UniProtKB/TrEMBL annotation:
Organism field: Idiomarina ramblicola
Residues annotated as transmembrane: 88-107, 136-155, 167-186, 192-209, 216-234, 246-264
Every Peptidase S54 GlpG peptidase N-terminal domain range: 1-81
Keywords recorded for this protein, A-Z: Hydrolase, Membrane, Protease, Transmembrane, Transmembrane helix
Membrane topology: Multi-pass membrane protein
InterPro entries xrefs: GlpG_N_sf (IPR038236), Peptidase_S54_GlpG_N (IPR022732), Peptidase_S54_rhomboid_dom (IPR022764), Rhomboid-like_sf (IPR035952), Rhomboid_protease_S54 (IPR050925)
Molecular function per GO: serine-type endopeptidase activity
First-listed, main subcellular location of the protein, grouped into a coarse class: membrane
Entry's Gene Ontology BP terms: proteolysis
Domain Peptidase S54 rhomboid: 127-262
Protein's UniProt name: Rhomboid family intramembrane serine protease
SUPFAM superfamilies with a match to the protein in the record: Rhomboid-like
Record-stated family: Belongs to the peptidase S54 family.
C-alpha cells in the first residue's frame, strides 16, 4: 500500500474517495490522529491516481452525481445513510432492544423476572452473570425506548465506525454493568434501559475528543443538553421515573474510559 495524501477535511476526503472509486482506483481511507489518510492498494495505479487527484483538486465537482442519478437514488438515500452511520453491533443491540420492548408489552412480569439484575434486593447475581447486563435491554414506555435507541444509534454508531466493534463492546459492558450495579445498590432491582450506556458513550466521546478534532467530537450544545437532562432528573420535575444513579454512574464510567482509551491511542482503522 502507498499513501497518496492526508487531510483533516473529512467531507473533501470522502468526495475524493468516491471520485477515485468511480474511476476504478483501488483506494481506501484510514484515520491516524487528527488526519485522514488516502491509501492506494496497488502501486501500478500510482501515476493514474495522482492524475485523477490533481483533476479533482482543480474541479471538486467531478465527484458530484449526475442529476438523474440523484433523483433516482433520493428515495433510498435516507435508509442507507442510517445504516452507514452504524455497524453490526449497533444494529444488533438496537434490534434486541426493540424485540425485548415488544415482549415486555405482552409478558411484562415474565420479562422483568428473567432480565432484571436480581430477584432480590440484597444479593447481586454472581451465579447468573448475564443479569449484570440484561437490564439495558428493557424499556417500559415508547418514549423511553425511542430516546435511548436514537442516542445509542447516534453515539454507538460513531464509536463503532471510528474505533471498531471491540471498543464499543467493551464500553457497552463496562458502562452498562457499572450503571446497573450502582442503580441496583441505590434503588433495588426493578429498573431497565439503555440510558446508563448512552450517558457512558456521551462521557466517552466528550473526554476522548476534548480539545482536539476527532470523528467522535460532539457539539458543546449537545453535551450541555444531556447534562441538563441528567440534573433535571434529580429534581423530580419529570413526569416519568428516572434512573438517576444509572445515568450518573454511566457518565462517570464513560469519562474514565475516555481518559484510558485516549491514553492508549488505538491504531488507525479503515473508515471506507
Amino acid at each position: 500500500m502507498r499513501r497518496l495524501l492526508s487531510s483533516r477535511d473529512s467531507d473533501w476526503m470522502h468526495k475524493l474517495y468516491q471520485y477515485l472509486r468511480q474511476q476504478g482506483m483501488p483506494v481506501s481511507v484510514t484515520e491516524r490522529g487528527e488526519q485522514l489518510e488516502l491509501w492506494l492498494h496497488q502501486s501500478s495505479y500510482e501515476a493514474a491516481a495522482k492524475t485523477l487527484i490533481q483533476q479533482f483538486k482543480d474541479n471538486p465537482e467531478l465527484a458530484a452525481e449526475p442529476a438523474k442519478e440523484k433523483m433516482a437514488s433520493h428515495s433510498t438515500s435516507l435508509s442507507f445513510s442510517l445504516l452507514k452511520q452504524s455497524g453490526w453491533l449497533t444494529r444488533i443491540v438496537a434490534v434486541l432492544t426493540l424485540l425485548v420492548f415488544a415482549a415486555v408489552q405482552m409478558y411484562p412480569e415474565t420479562v422483568l423476572d428473567t432480565l432484571k439484575i436480581s430477584r432480590y434486593f440484597a444479593a447481586l447475581p454472581y451465579d447468573q452473570p448475564w443479569r449484570f447486563v440484561t437490564p439495558i435491554l428493557m424499556h417500559f414506555t415508547l418514549l423511553h425506548l425511542v430516546f435511548n435507541v436514537f442516542w445509542w444509534w447516534y453515539l454507538g454508531g460513531r464509536i463503532e465506525r471510528s474505533l471498531g466493534i471491540p471498543w464499543l463492546l467493551a464500553l457497552l459492558l463496562f458502562c452498562g454493568i457499572t450503571a446497573n450495579v450502582i442503580q441496583y445498590l441505590f434503588n433495588g432491582p426493578n429498573f431497565g434501559g439503555l440510558s446508563g450506556v448512552v450517558y457512558g458513550l456521551l462521557g466517552f466521546c466528550w473526554i476522548y475528543s476534548f480539545n482536539r478534532p476527532t470523528p467522535l467530537y460532539l457539539p458543546p450544545g449537545l453535551i450541555i443538553f444531556m447534562l441538563l437532562w441528567l440534573v433535571i432528573g434529580y429534581t423530580d420535575m419529570l413526569w416519568v421515573n428516572v434512573a438517576n444513579e444509572a445515568h450518573l454512574a454511566g457518565l462517570l464510567s464513560g469519562c474514565f474510559a475516555g481518559f484510558v482509551v485516549r491514553w492508549l491511542n488505538p491504531k488507525m482503522r479503515r473508515l471506507y
